[in-house]
Amino acid sequence: MLMPKDFYHKLRRRSSFIKPYSHFIQHEKPKRKHQIKFDSASPYPPHFDWREKGVVTPVKSQFNCGSCWAFAAIGTVETSYAIAHGELRNLSEQELLDCDLANNACNGGDDDKAFRFIHEHGLMREEDYPYVAQRQNSCLLNEYSGPTTKLDLAYFIASDENAMLEWLVNFGPINVGINVPPDMKLYKGGVYTPSPWDCKNNILGTHALNIMGYGTWEDGQKYWIVKNSWGPKYGIEDGYVYMARGENSCGIEDEPIGILC
User: What stretches in the chain show pLDDT beneath 50?
Assistant: First the structure.
């Protein structure tokens, strides 16, 4: 299930939290949490994938619930936390559905509000707060006394391929939103390159995802390695889709966000 057409992007554009000079969302370049050295003269390697570093949880399924916003936000936090602290935690999307009342659970949500919630309240582990694909009547976080996982800062990355590459390689995954043409549901491999017309005029709804890496196909087509939340049987490599890079395909490079934990 997707969020309604343009719902995700409209929410982001009117956000009161992700904006210039916010006390939380920073625009100046952060200090690096880690340093990756490359052998080539290029500032970026031809291929990069955070999965190869052991800091990405398996693809999950949102099922028939418009909760992609929660899965994308948490996917970003899980990997960013593992990069910073050396521990990969499987975190609870259900907590956001039940406890983040600023968002609309299965009816869509805004990563701006989700990141604010995670910053202020933290996240429980999936095993302590399992996913049921609907908003429940109570928030278990209020009854939980164990440790939670929080994020420190979120950054509005420039809508530019090189800026996104710099963030991805030096800091971690990127939270993005796209419009979804019908044929994306049928993706089985290769680089997904929908037409600009379909991305604008023929969409099922809007969707939030994670960029976990990038590469170049054998025919020279550049792509982003994108973690989806449609289950491990979708697409390729247990739930991933390779989306065209440098073309702002379906808005994937419009409003990228990265975080630090």
Answer: 7-25, 27, 35-41
Which residues lie below 8 Å from residue 86, measured CB to CB, with a gap of 6+?
none
81 vs 89: CA distance, rounded Å? 8
Torsion of CA 37, 254, 243, 202, to 10 degrees: 180
Q: Assign 105 to helix, strand or coil.
A: coil
Name which CATH class applies to 7-26+47-260: alpha beta
Residue type, 177: G
Please state, in angstroms and as integers, the Cα–Cα distance from residue 118 to each residue in 92, 93, 140, 175, 220, following that order: 11, 11, 15, 14, 39
- Under DSSP, the state recorded for 171 is T
107 CB contacts (<8 Å, ≥6 apart)? 3, 66
Task: Give residue limits of the domains in the chain.
Answer: 7-26+47-260
Tokens of 14: 């009117």
Q: Which residues are catalytic?
A: 68, 207, 228
Structure tokens at 237: 């490599």
* The predicted structure's pLDDT at residue 158: 84
Kind of pairing between the strands at 240-244 and 222-227: antiparallel
Question: In a 3-state reduction of DSSP, which class is residue 17?
Answer: coil
Cβ contacts of residue 234 below 8 Å, gap of 6+?
A: 59, 187, 228, 241
> pTM of this prediction?
0.87
Question: Distance (Å, rounded) from C-alpha 35 to C-alpha 171?
Answer: 9
